[in-house]
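User: What would this chain look like folded?
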Amino acid sequence: MKSADGSEAGVIGGWRQPAASGDGEIAGRYTVRSVARAIRLMEIVADGPPDGQSLSDLARALGTSKSTTLALARTMTAAGLLRDARPGPRYTLGTALIRLGDIARAQLPLGDLCRPVLAELADLTKMTSRVAICDDGYPVFIERVDGPGSVRFYTPLGQREIPYASAAGKAMLATMTEAEVRAICEQAGLQPRTARTITDIDSLLANLAAIRGNGYAVDDEEDAEGIFCVGAVFFGHDGACAGAVSVTGIKGDLPGWRVSELGRTVRRYADRVSVTLGGVGYAERERVIGARA
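Assistant: Here's the prediction, encoded as structure tokens.
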């Protein structure tokens, strides 16, 4: 994204930031330069090796003198935002961030964060949109926005739903290992909800493999007759599956191209939730996992 002066805006911690100046620091009308430099220093440490980075490494990456970098590092260490690991010194992230992270998580209720996304998705697709958290592999829907029109779906919030027959649940299962999927399905029992419910574990595993390839899951009248759902997972800052976004509507004569279009749309909106939570989109996560394999 271009700023007013033509420079590129950046993303820190999943949030859109003002454009960076030539030396890599955040630039903006109301930016406090020293604070922006401290934020940049913390990001450099976060992206560095687990055993920390030396003062010389930090000064070089920050583009400042050692004395300026040392003053910043010591100030942040005193506040617990950085930790001075010896011998060295080598700087790592400080324990104060753990406490701040817990507080931030508590102050950011997922349902409230997702509601604007759900409202936009419902308006775009003309379907009911929902968001679910992942509760040990089970979807628990916590927020809903009804689509326009007179049709309303009875979709209670706050209760565990079976994972193998819903789009959100299957999308979550697709992020797990085969052993984890088998354990969850053994616990839940692959009982039929409709004539189209997948009740064979091998068939379900094959379906999950296709979901991983597509990036979204489809519930084609598997939970309720005549009802169609598409779901896609989102991820937290730790890379783990945090939940899923889905849309629900009447099946009717839905052509294949429309299913694919809905899948890509829901995938895109789920990625927006991932970024809001400090995570990465599905494609980027799969690329990283593939590179590690």
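The chain has a mean pLDDT of 85. If you want, I can go into more detail on any region.
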